[in-house]
Amino acid sequence: MTLRFEASCPDGLCPGWSIILKGETPAEASKFEINFLCDRDDKIAFHFNPRFTESDIICNSYMANHWGQEERCSSFPLGKEEPFQIEIYSDSDNFHVYIDETKVMQYKHRVEDLKTVTKVQVVNDVNISSLEIAKKHFY
Ligand code: GAL
Hints:
This is Galectin. The chain is mainly β.
């Protein structure tokens, strides 16, 4: 695993914070991941995993030492060597994912205590040009 970016927010990222990743995938890209983690107990609250080998985006959570039921995005709007923007934010019920401002996924929270989601990381085949973490004010 190649860690490209990691940030912690001790007060919690969910709900209320929006992550906006701008980047490009290299020609030899096979997959990358954006993970929202519960830092204290090794859970992955939300694993967002575009796979170029399958032209599919797999979403899942890793809890109690295993992966749960996978959920797939309905579309794959990513191309190798093409710049993209991914925005992920959550409200109290779901993570919401937009690629280039089109919604591609709504993922119902599986972690009960959202306050424990304190870390975000970007992993593997992606060249990050910017990553913005911004407060969403819609509550
Ligand atoms: C596994 C893969 C993990 C993760 C998981 C999601 O097959 O090894 O990295 O993507 O699927 O369900």
